[in-house]
Amino acid sequence: MDTAHILLTLKQGPRSLENYIQEYLAIAYYSDLPDCLLIEFFCDGINQPLRSKLRHEGPCSSLCQFMDYALLTVGSLFTVGVAEEECGTASRTEMVAAPERTHKMAATTTGHVITAIREPSQVTTDLREPSQVTTDLREPSQVTTDLREPSQVTTDLREPSQVTTDLREPSQVTTDLREPSQVTTDLREPSQVTTDLREPSQVTTDLREPSQVTTDLCEPSKITVDLHESSQVTADLHELSQVTVDLREPSQVTVDLCEPSKITVDLHEPSQVTTDLCEPSQVTTDLREPRQVTTDLHEPSQVTADLHELSQVTVDLREPSQVTVDLCEPSKITVDLHESSQVTVDRHESSQVMVDRHG
């Protein structure tokens, strides 16, 4: 059998790189050609543009290392090494090469990755192209994902875990947290974050471009959102919670608080804040530009608003409450008091206060 001629005419064609390597190694096993020629014949059969990349960057020390580099370049989970009988099924992702050419390299997880982690673990993923990552974490774990292109990350965390995501392009992050967990997301482009938190958790989101954040918190939780561009934040808090929102551009914040909670909103541009507080709560609002604030307080609560520009504050108080407003520019305040309440207004400029007392 003329193995040299067979190897020289062998081509990858429509097959995967793994299948091509397996057939190439099966034939090269019977050849006595030096590695330099085996590498050259192997390169000739690889499809472009990988062929050019390997010719310029591939290690030529051995055929095994060269094939490992090729697999690493395409993000394959396979490596090339020696098949040992005692390995059993544990080496199913290891291809067979000549015994004297033992070498093994770790593979990246570029592409479509599905990971199931049963014990405390750490997963780090760097995705350079459109990709999808699905991770199921059964024990305390940490997931770090750097997404360079449009991508989707779906994470199901069963135990205390931490998820850190850096999204460079339009992306979607969906996270289902079953136990105390922390999610940190840095969104560089238009993105959407959907988070369902089943236990005490913390969500920190830094949105650099127009984005949407939807969060459903079923237990005591904390949400911190820093919005750099036009954005929308919707939060449904079922238990003791704290929401801190820093809005840099025109934005809308809608918060539904079902238990004692605290909301702090710092609005840097014209914005609208609508808050429905069902239990004793505190709302602190610092308004730098013209905007409108609407607050519906169902229980004893305190509202503090510092308005630096033309603004309008509408407050509907159902129970004993206190409203303190510091107005630095022409503004309008409308307060509807259903029970014993106190309204304190410090007016620096021309302002208007209307009070409708029902109690």
TrEMBL record:
Disordered: region residues: 122-195, 340-359
Superkingdom in the source lineage: Eukaryota
Name of the protein in question: Retrotransposon gag domain-containing protein
Organism: Sinocyclocheilus anshuiensis
